[in-house]
């Protein structure tokens, strides 16, 4: 277990094929001390059982993935989406309470894309703001921080109309920082000419709810959603980005979240081992 | 020929399979009055011949594509790239002089990606600035405007380290506006939360060197370079973007530049006809 960085957290999406029991086991067995969970595998076993399993694992809980999908116009589908986010807030609070000391109650929000047939990007973005306004009091009551995640602009039409860290911070600005923050994920923001300024701003405003790392490499695969790589296997400058995050005073967990068909086809224990190695090589040298 | 917008210009890349003679002929026969050319088909016949052919066509010349690829470190390859840009400047001046009245001497610059093995995005961006500094006096002497084209951030590592209009304008700010401007291409900038402010700024600063339109649609094809569509076939809001450009006072040509394998496999005359129809339906209603 020597050499596993105590700040590393495995986001469960990195070992997507593993069920909750396997994910918790291989993470803990690798000497990793934190995990970010996804709603589907948690709900597969049920929230109470998941919370017990998490407590038994001894792992810190670092984020819950994910809420959002806020861009639908008024109507039953939007109401259903908001109710689903309410459940996600509850899950986040329960899991954070069940996790080991240092767990954080952070729900990652992916805003959603343009509704089918729509070209109204500004309107979709306003509906994201409105939805966060509806959910913020409930998050506050539950002690949960909503982390708005800007996604790379290649997902801007069909997945997430929040495309830059600056935009996420502008959305968050209407709310208290312990209730609405931003997810800082290297994969999504490395290209942004304003990235260092916006990381500094996010820190100043107390809004870095989670720092997530994985790498970017081209050519992109046919499904661009699966174009993430182990840190160090691509072109992202983790030294500069990590130092920018560290310089804000962010001292909590750092998640590795990789969507990649080859990695998903690899034995989960092997993926966790390789992730911990990559993290130690590429990220840890830039931590205090 | 009724109904072809007089401001439409066909960028030759849209009919990539056509040689220069065919491109000029099908464009003029469709009643389109402007064309943007690419260096390869021009150099295939030689510059002087190309200029004569362009003059004979009666078409306006609207842009030359393209220069750039400025991100290499010092050395023989960088010197070769700069020399190639000098030739592109010369070609642009000659073709603009040969085109019909209203032709514009605009050379589109695609900055280039990270050099092989590099993660130094900031350094690559500085080399772009340096290269433009070298070329600007030569562009001025030739009466050519260099148009820095921001490319969508999905090309940020391997093709163009200039990713937003704001960044292009920051780069251009060191130079006179008639020497260095920006290319405003809907495909590359539609997602940007700052796009309307930056279009207004580009107009205020006199830097809209060309306005180009094509559409964005998902899923992206396996080669994301070829993910452009006829205006109206995707999710871009041409009303809002075109009005923003018009509101700056921009009153020159509007190019359609589409990279798309299906469109490239279609008869060029048919592509020009469909392009003119799409333009008339989606862009023209928002022009004065």
From TrEMBL, chains A, B:
GO molecular function annotation: isomerase activity
InterPro entries, per this entry?
Answer: IolE/XylAMocC-like, Xyl_isomerase-like_sf, Xyl_isomerase-like_TIM-brl
Listed A to Z, the keywords are: Carbohydrate metabolism, Isomerase
Q: Which residues form the Xylose isomerase-like TIM barrel domain?
A: 25-278
Entry keyword annotation includes Isomerase: yes
Q: A Pfam family in this protein?
A: AP_endonuc_2
What protein am I looking at? Answer: Sugar phosphate isomerase/epimerase
